[in-house]
C-alpha cells in the first residue's frame, strides 16, 4: 500500500518541482513575480516552503512554466495535500518548526537509518525511558513532559502501520548500559527492544557498536537520522541533533558525506543477530 503524502512532504515536493522546472526552463524570477503580481520576497518564501500558493496562482504558474497536463494535476494534488494538517500540528505549543518538519518527513518516509551514541533511539523508546530522559531537562516544564512522551509514542506507530517504516538503528554499546531512569527502567526498555526486533527483522534492524571497536566515523556524533522516501523525486535528507542545535540537512554534498560515514560505521557494528544476543545478555545482567 502506498504511503499517504504528509503535508510537510507535499509542500516540500511541490516547492522542489517548481524550483526545478524554473531552472530547466530558464525562467527568471522577475518573469514569475511580474506575471503573478508577487514580490521577490514572497516568491522566495514559496520556493523555500514558507508559503503555499493559492490554487489560482498555481494554475497560472504551471502554465507559465510549461508543465504538461499530467504534472499540472499532480501539482494541484500536492498543493491540496500541503494544506492539510498533520496530527503533530496540534502539539504546536510543544514542537518547534524543526521538530514538526522531522515528524512530517517521518510520516511519508520509507526508511530511516539512525545513530545514537548513548541512548536508545526515540522511535524505539518506552514511555518510562522517554520520560526519564525528559524529566531532568531544565528547558522542559514538568507539565509538558507527558505530552512530549505522547508525541514520541505516536511517532512510533509508523513502525507498525499498514505501510511500516523500515528502521536501521546503530547504537553504541554504551546505550545498553547507561541506566536511564535506573536499572528497572533500562531493563524494561531492553526487553521491549528485543521483542520489537524479534519477528520483524525485515523491517527493524538494530546494530550495536561494541566497546571493542577501535574507530568509527560516527564517534562524537549525537543524533543522526538518514531519511529516505519511496518517491524517486525526493532526495535523502538528514536530521541532526546536538545539545544546542538541531535541524534538517538537505545539502547534497553534506548528505552524501554523512551517508558514506554511516555505511562505514556499519562495518564496525556487530551483526544484527549478535547485537540481539548482546541485548539479551544485558537484560540478564540487569536481572
From TrEMBL:
It comes from the Bacteria. InterPro entries: Cro/C1-type_HTH, DUF5753, Lambda_DNA-bd_dom_sf. SUPFAM superfamilies: lambda repressor-like DNA-binding domains. Residues 99-280 form the DUF5753 domain. It holds the Pfam family HTH_31. This is Helix-turn-helix domain-containing protein. It comes from Lentzea indica.
